[in-house]
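Running this now, will post back.
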Amino acid sequence: MSLLYTSLIALSTAVLCISCTAGDGNKVERQRADSLTNEVVKGKMSLERLAKSDEFMYFNKKYFYEPADLKAIPKFDKVQIQIVTYRIYKHVKLSDNRYHFAVKQAKDLHIPNKAFVYYQRSFDEMNRKAATSKDSIRLELPDDYATKLLKE
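Update: finished.
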């Protein structure tokens, strides 16, 4: 009985560890993302092609905590941010002064769960502010914004 109990505890711990990191990209996925980003930086692959691919992409977590001026950050970081942001905004619509985000899981966009949740919470917060202002705050989303992100 104790061997079975110990095995269940070990299995539960392993599943918990796997599920906590699932969706944020493992070492191999991140190395591949870095390699592909370098291909874009070197001009061997187009930004649009990588953005529209099913390749996993992430960006440095420091950009969750500090504003990113795309003109001032390194090209490598800019490319990664553009790709993740493109994949998010490709699925955002604006109607009745609310952002509607049509995707439910990060894995559908091939981006880290942390980035997905960050953007999702941002949209929820902007919607909340618009609602509490009785819509005196007007939300905006330029036409084809996702594609414009790739042109910056």
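Residues 37 and 63 are 17 Å apart (CA to CA). More later if anyone needs it.
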